[in-house]
Amino acid sequence: MGFRIKHTIIYNYMKKILILEGIASSGKTTLEKLLVARLNDSIILSENYTLMPIIDNRNIDIALAHLQKQIQTIVDSSAQNIIVDRFHLTHAFRTQSDLDAFSEIEDGLQKAGNVLIVLLTIDPERIRERVEETVLHRKDNWKKGAPGNIAGKAAYYAKQQEVLLSLLPISRLPSITINTSDKSWTDYADAIQKKLTIQNASEKK
């Protein structure tokens, strides 16, 4: 299990925005459930809002407009902690766009609250195994998964993970990368909470 933390300027806002990025089967839903139970006054903005309404979209302008609406949802929420399932990194991948195109989205997130991106990864050689587990578990309900057979899905997600890893260092937002290959979910939740605690301490200085 390894963590890589990127340090950036922390903005002094009360609301916390925790964005979980990563390929399907990386453990976003599992961690969201753990974190929403741990964090006071928290809600989940699921992919039913952030991704699924435009799941087939490949147009950057449509993606940007959709994300701006989701930022407004975050701003309007009375919750102190907003846990977001996928956001602009995913849409950058899906529209094959540079992260520079999402500069206004990052500006909007920074104005909305104190942001932390958590990128969940899997060892490349274990992606196929995780995909097989997910397909077996979700069966016909896994409609958002990449098309094709297991090998095709695994190759697609391996490529997506490479792109997400390449985009993250370009982002101006604070981030932490967590490898979830060994499924130590409690440890991962602890690491995220530790990072949030560091941010909270920085705000008070």
What's the SSE blueprint?
Elements: E1 3-6, E2 16-22, H1 28-38, E3 42-45, H2 47-50, H3 60-76, E4 81-85, H4 88-94, H5 103-112, E5 114-121, H6 127-138, H7 150-167, E6 175-179, H8 185-204
Parallel strand pairs: 2-4, 2-5, 3-4, 5-6
Antiparallel strand pairs: 1-6
Helix pairs in contact: 1-8, 3-5, 4-7, 6-7
Task: Give me a quick take on this structure.
By secondary structure, this protein is of the alpha/beta class. Helix content is 48%, strand content 16%. The model is unreliable at 3-12 (pLDDT under 50).
Structural notes for this entry:
This protein has 205 residues and is α/β, with parallel strands linked by helices. It is 48% helix and 16% strand. It has helices at residues 28-38, 47-50, 60-76, 88-94, 103-112, 127-138, 150-167, 185-204; strands spanning 3-6, 16-22, 42-45, 81-85, 114-121, 175-179. A six-stranded mixed sheet has the order 1-6-5-2-4-3, sandwiched between helices. Helix 6 packs across helix 7. It is globular. Residues 3-12 have low confidence and may be disordered.
